[in-house]
């Protein structure tokens, strides 16, 4: 396996109580298979980026907005004719990691509230992951009825909440 890349990041207080951070990575990762051919590795994501705005208020309140982007991961496409003939999934071995999933991106919103309880802190949070409900492809599976690959998506808009006690 071989890899090279670069990561860059910057953070700045934009306004009183508002922090902005940016991050970008570019990576190329390849692996040599048993046939001796170098191909993109499963985690050869190439472009990745993140923008985060964090609002910090008094009285224990905080909020953040985070947007993430990742270039599509490699995958091996199905051999459609062979899959139909076999009545089940068959990969196109001439295209190992030759396809790429669509780019991944999402926007997350989070609100936190902290309470001081003697020597401990109680933190309560609520967030919505994938706020704009994007259909991010997790993988493709073979559909015998459609005689084609069909996407399986990651979770769409997802509310999350929790409580944390810090001592």
Plain-language structure description:
4% of the residues lie in helices and 62% in strands. It starts with a strand and ends with a strand. The chain is built from one helix and twelve strands. The protein has one domain. The chain has one helix spanning 80-86, and strands at residues 2-15, 18-32, 38-40, 46-56, 61-70, 74-75, 99-100, 104-117, 120-129, 137-143, 148-153, 158-166. With 167 residues, it is mainly beta. A hairpin with a 5-residue loop joins β2 and β3. The mean pLDDT is 95. Strands 1, 2, 3, 4, 5, 8, 9 and 12 form an eight-stranded antiparallel sheet that branches.
Keywords for this entry:
167 residues; mainly beta; 8-stranded antiparallel β-sheet; two-stranded antiparallel ribbon; 12 strands; 62% strand; elongated
Q: Helix and strand layout, with pairings?
A:
Layout: E1 2-15, E2 18-32, E3 38-40, E4 46-56, E5 61-70, E6 74-75, H1 80-86, E7 99-100, E8 104-117, E9 120-129, E10 137-143, E11 148-153, E12 158-166
Antiparallel strand pairs: 1-2, 2-3, 2-4, 4-5, 5-8, 6-7, 8-9, 9-12, 10-11
